[in-house]
User: Fold Protein yippee-like from Zingiber officinale.
Amino acid sequence: MGRLFLISLEGKIYSCKHCQAHLALSHDIVSKSFHCRHGKAYLFDKIVNVTAGNKEERMMLTGLHTVSDIFCVGCGSNIGWKYVSAHEKNQKYKEGKFVLERFKLAGPDGNRYWITHDTHLGGSDDDDS
Assistant:
């Protein structure tokens, strides 16, 4: 397979909670108002050290989107998804952006975010209200 080269970031960093691979900088957050099946999620403009899975159509709270799951290159964990395209005109701003699930991240201060008993475990995906 070869040697794994990871990009290192400087500043307030979000990283994979499993392997601590750097994923994103806090100033690249577009929105903190997203939700996934495990709780909160953040929309990022740029991320690093990920690989994308196959494109698929998903019905989310805000309509139909074409997305790809994204995986940490350090450990292979599924950490969120990339918006490939949005079918609703008012959702086009999401195209090319990434959602990282807070439950799967370590924050800039080293915190790990866990599912709480208040978290809704039923549905999926985002809500940018």
